[in-house]
Design brief:
The protein is an alpha/beta fold. The protein contains 30 helices and 13 strands. The strands form 3 sheets. Strands 8-7-9-11-12-13-10 form a 7-stranded mixed β-sheet. InterPro entries: Carbonic_anhydrase, Carbonic_anhydrase_sf, SLC26A/SulP_dom, SLC26A/SulP_fam, STAS_dom_sf.
Length: 788
């Protein structure tokens, strides 16, 4: 177990001091992240505006409003909103059909709809749509975007539909515009190669966002060339949006489409960014509130539509860049919107140097990335590729809303087919009859199941393999009735699931876990007659062993047979306390053969120079190091340790000359009356003689004093009390005792053995690992595996 680097330890604020002032470092991190996403958002917003046929200024309006309004009001603080990539095709169609002012009105109406949906708290319901449909929609939009912008890169103008763009592509490829093609090729090449720059210089260059580097390189290459460039009108308030002229049903469909696509893109992006946020330390904001996020997106779309901006949605590209850049709060998102606003007002001359072909290539690459092969593998693994492919094709051929409808229809059809389709076969495998059921076992399959079971002769050995994940009550009743009847005629029946795992029958299902307490625990208690005495601990233990043989032994028999053949070869020696509350296999998630475990009162390791009565632990250490060749040794202490309390009590007794009350955490006591009222332990008893090996730990703690003097600390909180401090010091002291063993010292010097310290707080169910250089115990967090 490799100790994690200790986090920066800050002492807790004194009680009554009130809230602390905001950490200046969070402002620095948010400011740095805001500049990064600003440099990504500006070229991307201009490219999306170009792709939709809207005024280029509209992209900057959407970026500024998305950053400020959605950043302040949204429920996903680290999500960055701006011009919606997923709405490029829809917006282009709206601009062509209704005009720009009417498109702004549709954007505002869609924003009002989003706000109402957020207020109605239905955001979670939107996530019920199959991921295959969502990814199919995004992929279809990406294909349409890429086809349209490829024409701009080749020096032409895109057509109104993906099919027309595809049909015209051969002629465009045969007669490209050389200058535009060069600019587009440079942009695409930089975008693809920038994240892969090698070496230390590449690492330094990658601090510049790839979109900014690509557009800057293309602008430099195009210097002196005659190519169409960005043309921004004078910054002024756009004409107010106007309601579109056309059928009410068509306008309603347009508003619904913008609402649906923008909401789905924003919510899915919020979930993705929230997962990234959860894996980072030091975040000020809590988990995403999807209903608030939907309402915030609606408010941003209303403002953007009224100001003449593009439809807005949260973007996974910008949001993930925000998290990767180190943002810790929503301040980075809001600041990025302010930088966009300043850029649009002060850097117009610089923006007008950018060639349009560079923006088209930028958006084209974004469109290609929307067709994610990782998503394709994911839906294929879950047998949902038909839904993905049909949605993608329908979006490309007919449009976004039609694509969603086709995807839902295909999903419903396949779900009904999977529910209704069941294949049942009967085969004879040696002396046994195999009944294999592929698919869901519902009432529709009961006639076929009955016919199959009728083929099996009485008294036969039968294995029923259920390959589906669902069985309704009718099918269960049919199978159970036949099973009981077959067994009554002398037959033998076993049920197993996919992969051959046995299925426990409901009447004998054992729902307990290995750590279920025996107190009020009836599942493993043997049944007794009414007039018999209550079962004692021995009968309880026997019942538990019986439950193991019935439920667990079939699952681990193969693994234990392998270990019996090959012998034990553990990787770690785990030395811990004999306390009954310390379940090593549970807190280490280990199984048979993983750990060579040594347990004793107080997790003590006597140095080699002690008398022969203490050779047991030394023999275990030597055997683990020299014979088993373990690669690490972990010493684990715990909270509420009775041995540590007995040491503390003995120190008080020697100081005051009075007896003290012992603790029964490990069943140890020293001096005075024990917890159960018995006389104090004899000074020459084996228990007292054993505890003397903990005296070096006690002396060490007394040397460092109450505050530890840098000798022992916890990274996440102060040490609770003297008992916990002694338990922590004892772990470090026993590691020093380990190094006194020649075999341990030799292998540590060779680099083939590592020593680790651990502390387990029983009441918190929290493990802490020791960082030896700083003598600090750091809490092990659930996300530690992501960093390994």
């Amino acid at each position: 177990m490799q100790p994690q680097p200790p986090s920066t330890h800050r002492p807790p604020a004194a009680e009554g001091s009130g809230p602390q002032a905001p950490d200046q470092s969070t402002w620095r991190r948010d400011l740095s992240a805001s500049l990064v996403i600003f440099l990504i958002a500006v070229p991307l917003s201009l490219g999306i505006a170009l792709a939709t046929g809207a005024p280029l200024q509209a992209g900057l309006v959407a970026a500024a409003v998305g950053g400020i309004v959605a950043g302040l009001l949204g429920g996903a603080p680290l999500q960055v909103s701006g011009a919606a990539t997923g709405l490029v095709v829809v917006t282009a169609e709206l601009v062509g059909q209704y005009g720009w002012r009417a498109t702004c009105a549709i954007t505002a109406l869609a924003g009002l709809t989003q706000f109402a949906l957020g207020a109605a708290r239905v955001a979670r319901g939107a996530l019920a749509v199959s991921p295959a449909i969502v990814h199919g929609v995004l992929a279809g939009i990406g294909v349409t975007i890429a086809l349209a912008q490829l024409h701009v890169v080749l020096g032409d103008t895109p057509n109104s539909s993906a099919l027309e763009n595809l049909a015209a592509l051969p002629s465009e490829l045969s007669h490209p515009h050389p200058t535009a093609l060069l600019v587009g090729a440079v942009t695409a090449a930089v975008l693809v190669a920038w994240p892969r720059l090698p070496g230390r210089a590449g690492q330094w260059l990658r601090t510049v966002p790839a979109p900014l580097a690509a557009v800057a390189a293309a602008t430099g290459v195009s210097t002196g060339m005659h190519v169409p460039r960005v043309s921004l009108p004078e910054w002024r308030l756009q004409a107010l949006p106007a309601l579109p002229d056309g059928p009410v049903l068509g306008i309603f469909a347009a508003v619904l489409t913008v609402t649906l696509v923008a909401s789905m893109e924003s919510l899915l992006s919020a979930v993705a960014v929230d997962r990234l946020r959860a894996g980072r330390a030091g975040m000020q904001e809590g988990p995403a509130d999807l209903d608030r996020e939907l309402a915030g997106q609606g408010a941003a779309n209303v403002v953007s539509g009224l100001l003449g901006g593009l439809p807005i949605a949260g973007g996974a590209i910008r949001g993930s860049a925000n998290v990767e850049a180190g943002a810790v709060s929503r301040k980075s998102t809001v600041l990025h919107g302010l930088w966009v606003l300043l850029c649009a007002g002060l850097l117009t001359t610089v923006l007008e140097l950018i060639p349009l072909a560079a923006l088209a290539a930028l958006v084209m690459v974004v469109g290609v990335k929307m067709v994610s092969f990782a998503h394709i593998k994911h839906v294929q693994r879950h047998r949902e590729f038909p839904m993905y492919a049909s949605t993608l094709g329908a979006v490309v051929l007919f449009g976004v809303l039609q694509g969603v409808a086709v995807g839902i229809v295909v999903t419903a059809f396949l779900s009904l087919r999977r529910l209704a389709y069941t294949r049942i076969t009967v085969e004879q495998d040696g002396a046994a009859h195999m009944v294999r059921v592929s698919g869901q076992l519902t009432f529709l399959a009961v006639p076929r199941l009955s016919r199959a079971l009728a083929q099996i002769p009485a008294g036969a050995v039968v294995i029923v393999e259920l390959g589906g994940s669902f069985m309704d009550h009718t099918a269960y009743d049919t199978l159970q009735s036949w099973t009981n009847a077959h067994r009554a005629r002398g037959g033998w029946v076993t049920l197993r699931g996919r992969g051959g795992r046995p299925i426990a029958e409901p009447v004998s299902t054992h729902a307990c876990r290995p750590w279920t307490p025996w107190r009020n625990h009836h599942c493993t208690r043997p049944s007794v007659a009414a007039d018999a005495p209550a079962p004692g601990g021995g009968q309880q233990l026997l019942g538990g062993v019986s439950a193991f043989q019935r439920n667990t032994a079939p699952l681990v028999r193969d693994e234990l047979a392998r270990l019996a053949r090959e012998g034990q070869c553990p990787t770690q020696l785990f030395l811990t306390c004999a306390d009954s509350r310390l379940v090593t296999s549970m807190i280490t998630s280990s199984g048979p053969g993983d750990l060579f475990t040594v347990r004793n009162v107080g997790n003590l390791i006597p140095p080699p120079a002690t008398d022969g009565s203490c050779d047991s632990v030394g023999a275990a250490v030597e055997y683990a190091v020299e014979v088993l060749k373990v690669g690490s040794i972990t010493v684990c202490g715990h909270s509420g340790c009775g041995a540590m309390q007995a040491l503390l009590d003995s120190a008080v007794q020697s100081t005051t000359g009075r007896g003290t009350t012992g603790r029964a955490g490990d069943g140890t006591a020293s001096g005075g009356k024990a917890a159960d009222g018995r006389a104090p332990a004899d000074p020459q008893t084996p228990l007292v003689r054993w505890l003397r090996h903990g005296r070096p730990s006690l002396a060490r703690m007394q040397r460092i004093g109450r505050l530890g003097r840098g000798e022992v600390a916890m990274a996440d909180r102060p040490v609770a009390d003297a008992l916990e401090r002694l338990a922590l010091v004892n772990v470090m002291q026993q590691l020093d005792h380990l190094m006194a063993h020649d075999c341990v010292a030799r292998r540590v010097a060779e680099g083939s053995l590592q020593l680790h310290g651990m502390y387990f707080h029983v009441g918190e169910a929290q493990a802490y690992v020791l960082d030896p250089p700083s003598r600090t115990f750091t809490a092990v967090r659930p996300e530690v595996l992501d960093a390994v």
